[in-house]
Fold this protein.
Amino acid sequence: MSIVYNPDRRNFLTTTAAAGAGLVLAFSMTSCVRSVPPGGRESSGFRPSGWLRITSDNHITVFVAEAEMGQGVHTSLAMLIAEELEVDFSMIEVEQAPVDNAVYGWQYTGGSTSVRDGWERFRQAGAVAREMLIAAAARAWQVPVAECRAEQGGVVHAASERRASYGELATAAAGMPVPQSIKLKERGDFRLIGKSLPRVDAVDALNGSIVYGADVKLPNLLTATIVHCPVFGGKARKIGSEKALAVPGVHKVVEIDAGVAVVADHFWAAKKGADVLDIQWDFGPHADISSESIQQLFTEQADGYTGVEQEISTALANAAQRIEAEYHLPYQAHATLEPMCCTVHIHDGVCEVWVPSQNPSSAQVVAARFSMSRVEYLAQRVKGKLLGRSLESVRVHNMPLGGGFGRRLESDYVVEAVQIAKAVDAPVKLIWSREQDIQHDFYRPASLHRLTAGLDEQGMPVAWHQLAVGVADYGPPYYKIPTSGGSTIEVDTGVPTGPWRSVSLSWNAFVIEGFIDELASLAGKDPVAYRLDLLKIPRLKAVVEMAAEKAGWGGSLPAGHYQGIAAQPGFGSYVAQVVELSVDKNKGIRIHRIVCVIDCGQVVNPDMVVSQMEGGIIFGLTATVTSAITIRNGRVEQSNFYDFPILRMGETPPIDVYIMPSEEPPGGVGEPGVPPIAPAVVNALYATTKVRIRKLPVRAEDLFS
């Protein structure tokens, strides 16, 4: 791979400056246009490529632009640099990179892309630094480069038994030519990649020293909370703030675009003030919508659909047997443990933002838009594009996230915090209450799916069609079906929706894997064998085989125990899950064991993969058997964890995760664990009760009606 040196004035001055000792590597790669100005631990230190800094006192810092929200991305990406840099992982410190689109590109953490996108880039950054350090040592010792090697954070010349640390070589290495091509390590030479290393934030997490967005403290900081109109799309018509202002500690009541905020000395005063606000709302056009009316709307849209392709219609008509089924999924909230929060301080012509965000580049843009006049904002955007710089008047500090799941890809709460801070002319931390968080989410869409399949005389599918109503994506089957297709009908229900962990796979896996199980049953065939006959993706077939083997599929089970299986490709990975459960009229559904197999290509840190699979399964299981969002009178009925319960520790079954060995490039792991769990559960329930569940969440009473 070729890496081209592309210095600008700043790079040249930084590289050749005599002041300060350190190493800067200024080379051009994807999302890297220039080096980053000195900063952080040692202001005179130098940073290579935006992702790596080595200082003369031998501190090695990796900068990660991706958001850390419990998935361990700061650890995994730092491991990639450490691998090529030839340093012990204990020598690495990790910092959240600043929001700077000119250096890091658009900063966005979603789609299980962090390690996939960083796999080459971070290793290249480490390898370039390694080669320049070796070259610097060889020049200083007047020996051939080939006689030197990198080892444990230094360069060694075995023949003369000389060794120099990276810190000692940093200044000299900064003046070395950037290599035009880099050879990355072969898999067989990996020392770190593939090993389970502790998370870099593990100790801080255990001792409580991690500062999340809700923990930010500033001098003279005020705290705000917000009341949104309970009906989607409504707004305040008249505000009675007298009682709120009488609450000790309350400073101000502020009306903003999204609702009414109460600003106080601390959250409790703000919350008490919000509770006694007297607001008359204009509920707008959505005051009458309900889950029932939305479902009726979906049904009407499906009933009026006439767009099945002629080829599919013909294949269905000529099939030996035709089967139809209708599946339903509800709205789902993200319910992050840390509700939406953001701190803003507008001062000295700068809007400074502390926010836990999956999309800090978006946060920077909206903060600029709402902290300055439109003319100023447009001027900043034009200047930024012409000079290749980020919005200089907005500084975004991306904080560790207390949960994301796609919710923090939105920047609505950033807009609110900026508007409040601007109104009170003081630093303000906005914290949503749990009730506001659950009732004003961007929900996973509700949807209706009509599936039709045509089977041959042996019960194998020859035609397949899926109509998805309420969503923008349907899932083309990953099974060998001669004629297949589908359509979507998007419907504006008035309920705000957005990406939810695993996005469209969360509904398509439920639909496809539930329906394929129905076809297996009609054919009188074992669900695993039926899938293996039809699967056309070898890696997906392999995880199905391993999951069945590890779960003891077809073997003896305790009395009353039954199994269900489901599989799903997505995000560059392949996952299969087997659920073992039992059902009792009095005790309800009891899940005894879950077996999960994932092929996610080359694994960087196995412990992270296991943790993400477990977390994804628990997240998906909550949406399968415990929680859903329902609408009545234009508003969400649920408000807190008592009526939107999250799966508790005592309810969580044993989960066995197996990682398929692979030399393919890394796939994603943050989301692929979610989709198969719902269909695996309902397929196991069918094996137990012979009742086919096509609607989530599963209720025990549905099994005995």
In short: The chain has three domains: 9-207, 214-284+340-431, 293-331+443-703. The first strand starts at residue 22 and ends at 23. Confidence is low (pLDDT under 50) at residues 1-22, 24-44. The CA atoms of residues 616 and 674 lie 5 Å apart.
